[in-house]
Every structure is written in structure tokens, then in C-alpha cells.
TrEMBL record:
It comes from Paraglaciecola agarilytica NO2. GO terms for biological process: proteolysis. The keyword Repeat does not apply. Residues 1-17 form the signal peptide. It comes from the Bacteria. This is Serine protease.
């Protein structure tokens, strides 16, 4: 009897979800659009995404990354929509929020749908059923039932954790509660029924700051630059004021952020009885990045420490081994030669207040499109001992010189011996 009751309850829940999905599709399909980026030379689409209408003036919400190639290269692309009734038309770019991966676009023809989505007054309770709508793989609009799991932990760029399948082409589509009210926007998938959504508050913020007048193409990069600069300032102000504590790593003490901002992992070869040296590692990173276009991502942070020691090596051999271990350090973000300059590096010997002497290499490369923003690469190797030492390394993506220098001073000054 217990199993029969469970089966009936499960059937009832599945039936409710199916009926809700059908109702959502039938009521709102005219307010859902496929968004196409058209390459002007060939006249064919180069990428697709989804979008949804939010007012009777034909304004749609989508992801920034859906329209990013047009934003960067407006002379090469245009934005089109495909409506549920097969209508095709042109879209203009109203505004963007590159940090939160959102964009507003507007239907240019007079043939605008009178149907549109409303925003929910609040996020649902954790565990609630929600529904992702979009256009996967150019197959037409679908509804995917899933579960609201709250705001993702260890997240500076806030995302909702969604249990459900967000497939390519669904980016920019709405995620709604059973009443059809928008609670988030499809943005990314981590596979295995793990998806991430831009939360309701970010959508509201972008809509509220707009009069829905399209911005001109020559303003796109200026808007992005301002948003990136403001974002890095907020991020590094938070890093400077978060609580850092010293954790033991081999014979050293390293600075580690105690809050939820960075995810940290560790490893060592201590279980390998045949190893000629001991290696103990600590790695922390900001998991999210800001997508700018196909070959450029920014906004990330990586911090790495490795403690090395060996009684098997002589002083000269250990020095060669130790020096060679720092040669593989590289930038933490993806950027092409058209996006950033070559690294310019400065080398120095630094002694901090904890009597730790470090050979430091600090490198910066400039963003060609965004003055005053840089990627930073730091490598440090302690010089106090002949058979053991600490290698420290960090990369910062898309920061001002002022933020970079303050972070470097805080980072190098905190390292200590046990």
C-alpha cells in the first residue's frame, strides 16, 4: 500500500508538472523568441539564443553573451528574431549588463506581440518547481521542468542553482514559476542536470535603469569599460575588507580568505614513499568569469601556493629544481592578441615584516579596448632556505593598476614562516 501511495503521489506530481509546462507553453509562446546573430557577408546565422518579451513595446531580455559578437563587431553582424508564428525581423540593442550577462533588445517592426512576461515579486522558496523556456539546438521552443536550489554559494557574480537541463540555444530564455512569472534567465550549464540562472534582482536592475532608448554602436565599448571598472572596484574592495587568516602550508604560513568568495583545494605527494621531494599545494579561485566575446574572458582570480622541500638534493640542485617549478605560471583567463598587449614585467627582491625574503616577478598586460584595465600575473619564490621554500602565484583578470598594487602588497606582506 505504501508503494502504491508513493507511485500515485509521484504520478500526480509528474502530471501537475506536465500540465503546468503545457499551460506555460500555450500561454506564453508568442512572447518567446529565437535570437539570431546574422553574419552580414553570408547572410546566414552564426549563433542562436533565446529571448523573452517584457513589455508591449517589443523589448526583450536575453543574455549578453548571445549578442556579444554583434556588440564587438557591429559592422560584421546584425541581430534578428524568429517569432513563434514564423515572423522574422530585426532587433536593435537597447542596453547591456556585461557583468551579469544580460542584454535588452527591441523589435524594430510595427508587428509587435501584445503578449509579454511579468517579473515575479520575489524568488521562490528553495525546492520549488520552476520552468526553463528556450530554444535548444535550433529545434523550437521547449519547456524544461526543474528545481530552484537557491543562490549559488561561493559566488560573487550571483547565480541561481537550477536542477534541470539548459542546452545550447536556451541561453537568454526565461525561467518562470508555475504562475508564469519570471524568476531568472538561462545562462549556463555544468552538465548532469546542473544549470545556472541570472537571478531576478539583476533583471529588475537592468530594466529599471532604462528608458528603452537604443544605445548607439560607438557607445558599446564605453558602456562595457565603465561596467568592468565599477565591478573590479567592488570586487577588490570586498577582498581588502574580507577576513584573511594565515594557514600552515609545509614550513610556511600563507594568507587564505575565510569567507565564501573563493573556492580552495589542496594536494600533496606525501603518500608517495619514493618521491625525492615533498610538494604541498593550496589553490584558490573565483569560479566565475565575465564573458566579453569568443576569445576574451575576464574578472577571474587565481591564487596558488606550493611548498617544496627535499633532503635528497644538494643546495645547487634544489635551487635549480625550485627555480624550474615557477616557469609554468601563466595567465588565468583566456585573451587573444587582439584583446591584450604583451606582458610587461618587473623583477625585484622583497623582504616583508615577517622576515620572508622573496624573489618577485610582477607582470601586467593592458586591455587594448579598455584603458586602465589590466591582467596581472605574479610569481614569487622565497630565498631564505637552501632545501625548502614556498612558491606563490596569483593572476588577476581585468583590474586597475591601483587594485593590483594594493592586492600585491597585501598578498606578499602576509606570508610568514611557521
Amino acid at each position: 500500500m505504501r508503494y502504491l501511495f508513493f507511485a500515485l503521489a509521484l504520478y500526480s506530481v509528474m502530471g501537475f508538472a506536465q500540465q503546468t509546462a503545457q499551460n506555460l507553453f500555450s500561454h506564453y509562446q508568442s512572447a518567446l523568441y529565437q535570437i539570431r546573430i546574422i553574419e552580414l557577408g553570408s547572410g546566414n546565422k552564426s549563433s542562436i539564443g533565446s529571448g523573452f518579451q517584457i513589455n508591449d513595446s517589443g523589448v526583450l531580455v536575453t543574455n549578453y553573451h548571445v549578442v556579444s559578437e554583434y556588440v564587438y563587431f557591429p559592422e560584421k553582424y546584425r541581430i534578428e528574431y524568429l517569432a513563434a508564428d514564423g515572423t522574422v525581423g530585426e532587433l536593435s540593442l537597447v542596453n547591456i549588463d556585461v557583468v551579469n550577462d544580460l542584454a535588452l533588445v527591441q523589435v524594430q517592426s510595427d508587428n509587435k506581440s501584445t503578449d509579454f512576461f511579468s517579473l515575479s515579486a520575489h524568488l521562490p522558496e528553495q525546492g520549488s518547481s520552476i520552468y526553463s523556456l528556450g530554444n535548444p539546438h535550433d529545434l523550437g521552443m521547449i519547456v524544461v521542468p526543474g528545481t530552484f536550489n537557491g543562490i549559488k554559494k561561493n559566488s560573487f557574480y550571483q547565480r541561481i542553482h537550477f536542477t534541470g537541463s539548459i542546452n545550447p540555444g536556451m541561453s537568454g530564455g526565461p525561467v518562470v514559476n508555475p504562475e508564469g512569472e519570471v524568476v531568472g534567465v538561462n545562462v549556463a550549464t555544468a552538465g548532469n542536470q546542473i544549470g545556472f540562472l541570472v537571478p531576478l534582482t539583476k533583471i529588475r536592475a537592468l530594466i529599471s535603469m532604462n528608458d528603452f532608448t537604443p544605445i548607439s554602436a560607438n557607445e558599446y565599448k564605453r558602456v562595457i569599460a565603465t561596467q568592468l571598472m565599477d565591478n573590479q572596484q567592488r570586487l577588490f574592495e570586498r577582498l581588502e575588507h574580507e577576513e584573511w587568516k594565515l594557514n600552515e602550508l609545509g614550513g610556511a604560513k600563507i594568507p587564505t580568505l575565510t569567507g565564501p568568495l573563493l573556492s580552495c583545494w589542496g594536494d600533496s605527494n606525501s603518500a608517495d614513499q619514493e618521491a625525492l621531494y615533498l610538494s604541498v599545494e593550496n589553490r584558490c579561485s573565483l569560479d566565475e568569469e565575465i564573458f566579453l566575446h569568443g576569445s576574451l574572458r575576464t574578472g577571474g582570480i587565481e591564487i596558488e601556493f606550493e611548498w617544496l622541500e627535499s633532503d635528497e638534493f644538494g643546495a645547487h640542485r634544489f635551487y635549480d629544481f625550485f627555480s624550474g617549478s615557477i616557469s609554468g605560471a601563466s595567465a588565468g583567463n583566456h585573451a587573444g592578441k587582439n584583446d591584450v598587449s604583451n606582458y610587461q614585467c618587473k623583477q625585484d627582491i622583497v623582504a616583508n615584516n615577517h622576515d620572508v625574503k622573496t624573489k618577485s616577478i610582477l607582470c601586467l598586460r593592458a586591455y587594448k579596448e579598455f584603458p586602465h584595465l589590466y591582467d596581472v600575473l605574479y610569481i614569487g619564490a622565497t630565498l631564505n632556505h637552501e632545501s625548502q621554500g614556498l612558491i606563490s602565484h596569483f593572476t588577476l583578470a581585468g583590474v586597475s593598476q591601483g587594485s593590483a598594487m594594493r592586492f600585491t602588497k597585501q598578498f606578499v606582506g602576509a606570508i610568514a614562516w611557521q
